[in-house]
Amino acid sequence: MGRIEISGATAVLPIIGRPVAQVKAPMVFNRFFEERNIDCVTTALELKDVAADAFIQSIRGMTNSFGYIATVPHKQRSAAACDELSDRGAFLGAVNLIRREPDGRLVGDMTDGLGCVEAMRRHGQEPKGKAAFVIGVGGAGSAIAHALLEAGVASLNIVDAQTGRAETLRDRLVKAFPKAIIDPKNADMGTLDIVVNASPVGMNGDPGMPADLHGIKPGALVADVVTNPADTPWLKSAREKGCICQTGLEMVAGQFDLMARHFGFQID
Ligand code: NAD
Questions:
Q1: pTM assigned to the model
Q2: What is the architecture, at CATH level 2, of domain 11-110?
């Protein structure tokens, strides 16, 4: 393994967002490229909306790029610009992975939710048949809700601080998963196997808790999407109650193979 010497032949796989200082993709992908001797580099571009729109059009003609990774707030405009979307990308109206085909077409997929579910499996927790609760159903939360239903949870509660957001998502999800029990209200903690904080509560030193874990079963899985800090006050509280704790960084790691495959890189 050696550092990639960036040359005129080096391909690019940028990540776009705003802000971007917190993103993990440059470290994760550049290490992957170095380990495999792939002549490619990932760097973060902080783009205003108008610049992101121009970037998305120009990457079609960027012949030394595999495509790009999108983070907040550019996932929705990326989905709208894609020529082809995975079913989940189309459902969510948001994508984080955009592959550039040789003819300049853009193909999008969304792996945030799959990463969260994969991280659960790495904890030995298979969601199929379980009772789950997702708190916050914005970009990440709706992707996680969708992925949990795809994985076959028996029931799913969803809530959001924004009035009507959980109900709107429920109405859309029941059409895609007609047999699932989906309730847009708080769940009794004692009945749950999986609880996910998909809101920004607890981020960047915020001492807040997204929900009171009182009554939760020891051994239930409590997951947080927040990556900074990895060990949020909520996860600390869950650990004290004997729960299995899953961090936002584990969710990032859980989707790496899917991300690499989307761009056509071989994974052992
Ligand atoms: P978003 O703004 O699209 O959604 C956040 C949602 O949380 C909103 O709908 C908001 O109303 C809701 N919310 C806020 N406070 C709440 C509360 N107290 N109770 C219930 N709902 C509440 O943001 P997003 O893109 O979904 O990102 C959310 C968090 O997820 C951020 O911290 C982001 O950094 C993180 N994230 C992590 C990963 C990962 O791989 N670990 C991936 C994407 C996003």
A1: 0.93
A2: 3-Layer(aba) Sandwich (3.40)
